[in-house]
Amino acid sequence: MTSPLSSLGKTRKMPLQMQPSGKRSVPFKASIQDGVAPTDMELMTSMMQKIAALEQKVKNQAQAIQQKNKKIGELEVDIKVLQKSKEESPGLSRVKDLEAMCLQLKRQIWEMERFLNDYGLIWVGEGTETLEELELLKEEEDQPLRSLWKPGDAVVSERPIDLDLILENLKDLNALAGEGMSQIERTAGGARLRQLDSVPLTFYQNGIVMFNGPFRSYEEPSTQRCLRDLMDGYFPSELQRRYPEGVPFQVTDKRDVFFQERNLPESFPGVGQVTGHAKASGVKVTKEIPGPRLSLEQFLNKLPKLMIRDGQVIDIRGETRKTLQGLDGTQSHEVILVETPSLSAMKKRLEGERKKEASDPNISTLRVKSENGEKTYIIKMSFRETIGDLRQHLAKARGEEVEPYKILTTFPYRVYDDTSMTLEQCGLVPNACLRLQKKASATGS
User: Fold this and answer.
1) Residues 247 and 198 in one domain
2) What is the pLDDT of residue 407?
3) Structure-derived torsion over alpha carbons of residues 402, 404, 410, 416, reported in degrees to the nearest 10
């Protein structure tokens, strides 16, 4: 038998517990408690790094916010400027002024054409205007805008206009241009002496008139440039293109006469009274442009001789001469003013019965020539009246039974046979020249 002590002396080794075959150990994250705890220095370093990163992030976000606020401020300023420009834009007011002036000029042209058409006249102009002359005319037409302040016109000139000096210089310029001299002009049968052309120039108290008009006030910039050229001893630059060698002036001194311009449309139409001042004595007032009026031949020479339209050759001067003088070349044709409601309303207004009522602008003046051209009917009608109404007025004026006729215009050629169409639809406004022509008989047709 062995003693218990002997068993202690023997080394006994326990077998290792082996993992069973065919199984994998499931991986688990090691517990923190199993690792070593960080030191205070490591905690401090980690905390400082996180704080530095957060501070940098806050700084970047602050910069981004500042840039966005700046951009928002700029956009708000742009929006305010845009809204203000839309509310009160000087460009829009300028456009409105130009549109109003355009309508005003159109109305003036319409009134002048209506006046000329009452006498069977049509103004075509000289047709020799250059670009500089058109610009000069545009400056002269800007008179309705005198109420607008212009900085350039408000500057006081260095030298005032001296009319006495201008009259003295005009004598020297006339001598230089050959006043009173004649030049040889070749003709078909030989030659003849012809006086040099001269430019009529009339001085008034408040302006000048060159050629046959229009009146030019001393306040106009174009007039001041012309007078300063004369005051400096030169021919006006505006005449250089037309008269490159100079031209004598036919001077008329009417500085004691005040030229009364036509009233502007926006001016008060009534008679005004001035308080506190007496009327200047010795000053005459005139409205007439000096110079001879156009004769019939001078007016016809301004028109083209012939015109081809739609394959037809139209004798413009011949037709115009017949209209003004009659078919037989004399002024013996009869002009008949037809009584119409529109004409009666105009007479009542002129007689003072309806002064307070405004005149109807939609009135057309028709000149209707009879079949033989011996009679011309002046008919005032509303734009809304029809061709049938025109036939009724003609029947009332002619009285006796007449053969069937048709109403037409020769230029352009058009027959107005639809009695239901108004004058405005036919284009016979604000004035027109018509002709009556007998209808061809059924046998002849």
Assistant:
1) yes
2) 92
3) 120
User: CA angle, corner 150, sides to 144 and 156, nearest 5?
Assistant: 115
CB 317 within 8 A of CB 325: no
Is residue 365 domain-shared with residue 428, that is, in the same domain?
Answer: yes
Nearest Cα neighbor of 261 from 233, 282, 286 is: 286
Amino acid at 358: A
Q: Which helix (H) or strand (E) holds 108?
A: helix 90-118
Q: Containing domain of residue 405, as a range? A: 333-438
What percent of the chain clears pLDDT 70, i.e. is strictly above it? Answer: 70
Give me the pLDDT at residue 73, please: 92
Q: Are residues 173 and 285 in the same domain?
A: yes
Taking each helix axis from N to C terminus, what angle separates 131-141 and 221-231, rounded to the nearest 10 degrees? 120
Terminal Cα-to-Cα distance of the chain (whole angstroms): 172
What is the DSSP secondary-structure string of 194-263?
A: EEPP-EEEEEESSEEEETT--EEETTSHHHHHHHHHHHTT---GGGTTT-TT---EEEEEETTEEE-PPP
Residue 433 CA, distance from chain mean position: 29
Question: Given this model, what pLDDT does residue 60 score?
Answer: 94
Q: What are the b/e assignments for 52-81, b being 16+ CB within 10 Å?
A: eeeeeeeeeeeeeeeeeeeeeeeeeeeeee
Q: Which of 71-75, 205-209, 366-370, 401-405 has the weakest average pLDDT?
A: 401-405
Residues 285, 168 share a domain: yes
User: Taking the model in full, what pTM does it have?
Assistant: 0.34
Q: Which residues contact 74 (CB under 8 A, 6 or more apart)?
A: none
Report the relative pairing of strands 249-254 and 199-204 from DSSP bridges: parallel
168-189 mean pLDDT = 80
**String of DSSP letters for 295-328:** -HHHHHHTS-SEEEETTEEEEHHHHHHHHHH-TT
Cβ-based neighbour number of residue 386 at 10 Å: 18
Helix (H) or strand (E) holding 113: helix 90-118
| pLDDT tens-digit map of 215-244 | 889 988 889 999 999 998 899 998 888 888
Task: Report the CATH number at residue 339.
Answer: 3.10.20.90
CA gap 290, 351 in Å, rounded: 32
**What value does the mean pLDDT take over residues 188-196?**
73
Total of domains in the chain: 3
Same domain, 77 and 170: no
Task: Give the integer Cα–Cα distance in Å for 443 and 432.
Answer: 33
> Is residue 111 assigned to a domain?
no
Query: What is Dmax (Cα atoms) for the chain?
Result: 187
Q: Is residue 122 part of a domain?
A: no
